[in-house]
Amino acid sequence: MLKTINILGRYSSKSFSNVFVSKIEISEDVFLFISGFSEFDIELGQVFSKAAKQGSTIFEQDFEAKLVLVRDSFGNKLDFIETGWRTIVGFRFLGDIPLTLKNLPFIQSFNDWEYKVMLYST
After folding, report:
1. pTM: predicted TM-score of the whole model, two decimal places
2. Which of 39, 99, 101, 121 is 20 to 30 A removed from 60 (C-alpha atoms)?
């Protein structure tokens, strides 16, 4: 079953205004993002290989992004993205990070409702 994640923007503990989220310790090869409300339960380890800007039918491919971290808005560890939740998500990329994701702005809070990029599972 094809699963999607709505990516709102990049996460940074320096710019994120939710004071409840403490610094998230990650390795250098993991990139953090904020996801919008999920339409699916998505387990850690799910692999994504397509990305498109919202409203576009042009896909950026030739990458592999593995979901390796999920946190709620308070920074608590989760085993999966639950349907209906917005989360902090971490991906490990095989190869370069796609430009559609790399060029996303760092966002300030979970209240940014505009979906920027859709990731599609393989």
Report:
1. 0.87
2. 39
